[in-house]
Amino acid sequence: MSQHTIAVFGEALVDDFITEQVVGGAPFNVARNLAAFGVATLMVTRIGADKNGALLRQEFQRFGMSEAALQVDEREATGRVVVERDAGGHRFIILPDQAYDYVEAAPALKALADAQPDVIYFGTMAQRHQQSRTTLRAMLEASKAQRYLDLNVREGQVTERIAHESLKLADIVKVNEDELQDLFKWYTHTQPGTGAADSPAMRDACLVLMRTFGLRGLIVTLGARGAMYFEADGTVTANHECHAPAHIVDTVGAGDAFSAVFLFGQSQGWPLAVTLARANAFAGAICGISGAVPADIGFYTAWIKSWGAAS
């Protein structure tokens, strides 16, 4: 469907619930959604030569994704997050020194040069180790592609310095309300609330952030209250339609679903307001299923048909 290529850099991993292993990682969730929408997707990541790595490869095959930028590490294990269930919900133990921490530059740059993507999506967790961080910077320097940052502030994994460097590298940044408050705390002299989406104080603080980092766009997702897109000239486009399903199974992957549809909409030339509405709707639908991406790829068919019919 799309003639554009989107490169996605970052972690592909397994959430280990002990009794079951679920493939995840925010960048890999985005990449799988994009591939299901028909976008040529270059997933730049590194896995181990192990059982979990085989699970990830199966997902590449299931979604028909190119393995041109998939690296295999003979020493480090495939990324794994141990998920412990307790009375209060879930506790996530993000293990150090995983294969995705060691993405090598040379093969990544070769795959990038061959693919010539229009957009490079990147997050922050895969930048926790210098090796992968250096590779990402080399990729960004080598490409004229638009840079889309999905900021993910995780305590103990993402430092303020990595967030700062990433913001300086980005063209468009997506944050949720909690992450936006972190940015306000770090980089503005005010800390307005985000409860009132049309708050002048929030708008002004967002524009300060954009000027500070030279951003072209700032996306703020508001959960069931929709999303807003701030442009450098002060223009704000919002969609506040609620698309929460009748029964919310979990919210895992909703933000990744939003990013995928936003990037897909850009590649298709959708108007911004339409893109936000469709991204919100699809993210809401993901909250109605278990996990970050559908078990059945047929899930995507109705969405692609409805978008095609409406355009």
Keywords:
alpha/beta, 40% helix, 311 residues, 13 strands, 4-stranded mixed β-sheet, UDP-N-acetylmuramoyl-L-alanine:D-glutamate ligase
SSE blueprint:
Elements: E1 5-9, E2 13-16, E3 21-24, H1 26-36, E4 40-48, H2 51-62, E5 70-73, E6 79-86, E7 89-94, H3 105-115, E8 119-122, H4 130-142, E9 146-150, H5 160-169, E10 172-176, H6 177-187, H7 200-213, E11 217-221, E12 227-231, E13 236-239, H8 254-268, H9 272-286, H10 299-310
Parallel strand pairs: 1-4, 1-8, 2-6, 4-5, 8-9, 9-10, 10-11
Antiparallel strand pairs: 2-3, 6-7, 11-12, 12-13
Helix pairs in contact: 1-8, 3-4, 8-9
Word description of this protein:
The chain has 311 residues and is of the alpha/beta class. It has a single domain (5-297), classed as Ribokinase (UDP-N-acetylmuramoyl-L-alanine:D-glutamate ligase), CATH 3.40.1190.20. Helix content is 40%, strand content 22%. The chain has 10 helices and 13 strands. The chain has helices at 26-36, 51-62, 105-115, 130-142, 160-169, 177-187, 200-213, 254-268, 272-286, 299-310, and strands at 5-9, 13-16, 21-24, 40-48, 70-73, 79-86, 89-94, 119-122, 146-150, 172-176, 217-221, 227-231, 236-239. The strands form 2 sheets. It has a 9-stranded mixed sheet, sandwiched between helices. Strands 3-2-6-7 form a 4-stranded mixed sheet. Strand 8 (119-122), helix 4 and strand 9 form a beta-alpha-beta unit. The model has no long low-confidence stretch (mean pLDDT 92).
